[in-house]
Fold this sequence. Notes:
mainly alpha
Amino acid sequence: xxxxxxxxxxxxxxxxxxxxxxxxxxxxxxxxxxxxxxxxxxxxxxxxxxxxxxxxxxxxxxxxxxxxxxxxxxxxxxxxxxxxxxxxxxxxxxxxxxxxxxxxxxxxxxxxxxxxxxxxxxxxxxxxxxxxxxxxxxxxxxxxxxxxxxxxxxxxxxxxxxxxxxxxxx
Length: 170
């Protein structure tokens, strides 16, 4: 069990570090949107890049940062009943639901990955005036799904650790 816990710790460190790394996207996104508003209304010279840039930064922040949210148990979930369950019962519920989550994430990584590779190979671009490469909008979904799959494994290990603990989890 110690090896599994060590693996979970490494995965959790990766989740935390990638979440913190993409957090820089927030101020950059605010700057891009702020500049667009200023350029459009004060200078009467709207940009062709600000909207796509903000959208791309949001995708990286939201999708790649998802593993950190899961690791910190901050993902949206229905807690009305779960919060009243004993710790061990929550661990069992986690182990029962994680395969469904992993299946969905696997599908996302696979299908969006295929689309991203096609976009990369064909040089597809967003249908906007600036037309940045489409792969920059698809890659965060693939990377985010892969990181979430890893975090699912760490969450499962933590649930197993809870169940293996003797006498714990009232």
